[in-house]
Amino acid sequence: LRKRGKYAKAYEHGEIxxxxxxxxxxxxxxxxxxxxxxxxDEDALEYAKKxxxxxxxxxxxxxxxxxxxxxxxxxxxxxxxVKKCLESEINPNLVLEAQNLLKELD
Length: 106
Prior knowledge:
Layout: H1 7-19, H2 25-37, H3 41-54, H4 60-71, H5 75-86, H6 92-105
């Protein structure tokens, strides 16, 4: 649904999964991204935080949080999250994306 641009419907489906209390950090991550697209940044931030709570090793959630903070002008918090993303991250694409965002923020 998300790939077809049906963000509201994708959000609804994600909420159904979450309501079943299933600990799927990927679902929380997807919902967070959808909420950013729908301009619900505060809610998106809460879902991204839940990703970290469920799977601390999912560093891309820190990058997502950094983008939310950047969008809201909270640059210090954005930088902090990018640095957390870069800690022990080995995915070269994610590292590059994080480094580029860090350059934007400086």
